[in-house]
Amino acid sequence: MVLEVLLSLSRLLAPGDESLQHDLALAMNQPGIYLQQHPETEEREVDADDPSLPWIALADGLLTRHMAAEVDHRSDVADVEWSLSQLKSYRLFSPKTRHWLDTTKMEGTGDILRALAPQAKKDGLVIATMDIESDSYVILILPKGDYAKATKLAHDLGYQLRDIREHDPNS
Length: 171
Description:
Elements: H1 2-13, H2 18-29, H3 31-37, H4 39-42, H5 53-64, E1 69-72, H6 77-85, H7 95-103, H8 109-122, E2 125-130, E3 136-143, H9 144-157, E4 161-163
Antiparallel strand pairs: 1-3, 2-3, 2-4
Helix pairs in contact: 1-2, 1-9, 2-3, 2-5
């Protein structure tokens, strides 16, 4: 049951990427092998017995596939903009939203994301964060409908994937 919910979430966030689904099944069923094959996850100081490993594997899988961006909590707007521009979903931002990002002068990732959220909302998008219990932000740009489904699936797994305006993982 848990694996099926996790795989449903991965299909929503990375449609058509069967390799991510394979990685998540490996993280659930053979965590030691998963960690050997994915040193980026092992660097997060999770071990094979950690119950959050599949959630962290999902975050890392989305990061490597440019479906999510990880940004330090102390970043300025230029760093946040560059990180978001690397995402496949960045193209969903309107030119007006991209211009706002390009011309805004702010520091502090949480403040920047909360200020960006109303701009993204005008584009039908949500700035969502995955809470991985880190001082960095794992950020996704999601269409409003996908966001609603993803939030429910994450909640069913016992984790938080939420609109930055509703939940700041670093507060």
